[in-house]
Amino acid sequence: MTFPAFLPNVAAGSGVLLAFCAFALVSSITPGPNNTMVLASGVNFGIARTVPHLLGISIGFSVMVALVGLGLGSIFTAWPWMWDLLRVVATAYLVWLAWKLATAGGVQDREVARPMSFLRAAAFQWVNPKAWVMAVGACSTYVLDANIWVNAMAMACLFAVINLPSVATWAVFGAALRSLLARPRVLRVFNVTMALMLLASLLPILGAHPHG
């Protein structure tokens, strides 16, 4: 079945479709590790250099949604210890990212520093607890089509369309603050604040479980 062929089936359940889109929007645009890092990237590097980061988040997460929709999310039911392992890995990685952000230099350093690449941003989704909660929560709550393959692909495509502008909003906001944070000392305070927010974004997520 081709992609256009299943669009009428998806549209037929307009109530479920709208509910899913609302879930995708709210979960994508609310604070979390991705949006915190994108905000900081917008400030430190501007919009153009943050684009690979944005695309990595959107495409990487959409791939995750597709795979979870095809059954990958069941690993947390079959092996509950996997969620505990994910939390340990995610905590260690985010602590490292927060440290790197908090110790970033001033204006001179940020001009030669590298923003997160497409591949790193895409790979980060697999150790991002919020991404797992979003993906498993969406795939276990909403059914857009009875065909599991069609359902997974539809969810992945819709998330890509909704997620990209949602996270880009944070980058645009960050870029708008660049002139206000041009002084090295002010930029340092901002980066430390973002590092603390990055760590704080883990607290409500680490206590959650993708299957409730």
UniProtKB/TrEMBL annotation:
Entry keyword annotation includes Cell membrane: yes
Cellular component terms (Gene Ontology): plasma membrane
Native source species: Cupriavidus metallidurans (strain ATCC 43123 / DSM 2839 / NBRC 102507 / CH34)
Biological process (GO), any one: cysteine export across plasma membrane
Subcellular location: Cell membrane
The protein's name: Lysine exporter protein (LYSE/YGGA)
Topological type in the membrane: Multi-pass membrane protein
Keyword terms: Cell membrane, Membrane, Transmembrane, Transmembrane helix
InterPro entries reported for this sequence: LeuE-type
A molecular function (GO) term: amino acid transmembrane transporter activity
Pfam name, any one: LysE
Predominant subcellular localization, coarse grouping: membrane
Chain segments annotated as transmembrane: 6-26, 54-79, 85-102, 150-177, 189-209
